[in-house]
Amino acid sequence: MRSRAPRMSDDRLLLSFFTLAVLALMAPAAGAGTPTVDPSTLQPVPPAGAACRLDGRFVICKTEFHEALESEPAFDLPCGTVYETSRDDRIGIRWYSNGLLVRRRVSAVVSGFWTLSATGDAPRVAISGHWNWWAIPDVPGGGMESETLTTHGNDLVAKAPGGRMIAHVAGLDQTDGRHHGVLNPTEDPMIAAALCDALS
């Protein structure tokens, strides 16, 4: 004959139900996290899709930006127009105090290529970039036109087929306009000539 499981006493049964009820009441509070904030109440309003939450004395908004270029005219060289195919992905964080923007940070990653062909044909120069910047409004709540900007990282790396470096802009750009690091931009006539050689 199969033995029966011992029967739970009424007291233990009541205690189990009480414990489950308390846990059920606590679950929503534990999962609620910090309260969300309506982005439209902030100045300036963050980009569309921003997720904003109250975190201590700040409202912190997380933003994303994604852009893909397909054979877009980028700039001109002595040998012709350079067309760019690339992807630009950025992740941003904004801090607001009393509803006003007080600082923001953005990290960007770009990868793609340049060509003299409007249809993206070879030869190509591979391009990449990985940099970030801090921006502090001159006054709380000010827009991008009135902020102090500091950037650092690899703004641009351009390599010929085979991996030879052609253009390279990297380092730290300070708010006073000074650049510390590598500065070999496409505007340099020698760099432009090297690009033409690689793309022709």
Report on the structure:
- With 200 residues, the chain is of the alpha+beta class.
- The protein has one domain.
- Helix content is 17%, strand content 50%.
- The protein has two helices and eight strands.
- The protein has helices at residues 10-32, 189-199; strands at 51-55, 58-77, 80-97, 100-115, 124-137, 147-159, 165-173, 179-184.
- Strands 1-2-3-4-5-6-7-8 form an eight-stranded antiparallel β-sheet, covered by helices on one side.
- A hairpin with a 2-residue loop joins strand 1 and strand 2.
- The longest helix has 23 residues, at 10-32.
- The chain is elongated, with a radius of gyration of 28 Å.
- It starts with 9 loop residues before the first helix and ends with a helix.
- Mean pLDDT is 87; it is low at 1-32.
What are the SSEs and their pairings?
Blueprint: H1 10-32, E1 51-55, E2 58-77, E3 80-97, E4 100-115, E5 124-137, E6 147-159, E7 165-173, E8 179-184, H2 189-199
Antiparallel strand pairs: 1-2, 2-3, 3-4, 4-5, 5-6, 6-7, 7-8
The count of domains is 1
What sequence of helices (H) and strands (E) makes up the elements? HEEEEEEEEH
Radius of gyration over all CA atoms, rounded:
28 Å
**N-to-C CA distance:** 92 Å
- Judging from the principal axes of the Cα atoms, what is the shape? elongated
> Can you give the helix content as a percent range?
10-25%
How many DSSP-defined strands?
8
Described by strand count, sense and barrel closure, the largest sheet is: 8 strands, antiparallel
Helix tally equals 2
Strand order of the largest sheet: 1-2-3-4-5-6-7-8
